[in-house]
Amino acid sequence: MSALNKVRRALLAFDSTSHGWGSISLRNAVHAIAPPVNPRKQTPSLTSFNILASQIGPFGAIERSTRFLDCIFTSNSSTDIIHLQEVSSDVRQLLLDDSRVRAGFLLTDTEEHSGEFCGTPPRCENMTLLSNKRFGSESASSVPVEDGDQGERLTLRSVYHIDSLHMHRNALGVDVAASDSSLVYRLLNLHFDPFRSRLRRFFQIRTLANVLREPEYSGGGVIAGDFDTIFPEEERFFGEHSLVDAWTALHGSAAAVNRRASWGSQSVGRKRVDRVVMLGLKPHQIELIRLSPIERCASLSDRCGLRCTFTI
């Protein structure tokens, strides 16, 4: 395994008193929630969506982001974790200004002041949004924990950007602890590069699988985002590292091919773009996110994104 450089990122919460976003202490969050007497299984929901920052026209980045937020907040299905890729500075500001995001989510910060959004063309970042009803922090949550389906809140441990020789582009990590503090899980928000190298892709998948297997993270975790898949061998790469593709596990690979349900349509041919891959966890349900019934590529996951629930 290549050496990994984990660059710490801040986690932001909106303070209704000061009417602004501020970073929270994750060290304090570890001790914020007392373990329940009878811990129970949870089924958090994760949504992954590529903003497509370079896309212009009637379905440009701002329009897609606005439709995505409307879809999330008007859906009958709750979302606990949101993985966003290709977040530009204007989309980031849109998220920070949205009253629904302010009330319901914690946000991973970007390195805007160090030039992440600078350059030609401007660089884009991954961002992860975490429901403050599902994830607990003594200083962060402005919404009380609800009983019933929400269950006990998971405890946030750390946020970081993963940098290694093989990764390229973005891999954003969030570590969370189960309510009984006996298991720790990793949530990796991924945006792979489009290079057509089987060897590089093999090392990328191996690197991420090893990240989920680090000794202190006994719970495993989830890798979700834009895999930019080109080679059919990637299915085998996942299997070699005991990683479970949620769509294949629940719908089967043949069904995905026949219905084009979670496949992209780039010039190199049909390919799996958005994926949710797991280690040590069980996928419960997965579906496409449809922003609009009239969107031109609404049947393809590189335009729609995915929503997946899984059991912890």
TrEMBL record:
InterPro entries, A to Z: Endo/exonu/phosph_ase_sf
Protein name per Swiss-Prot or TrEMBL: Endonuclease/exonuclease/phosphatase domain-containing protein
Species name: Favolaschia claudopus
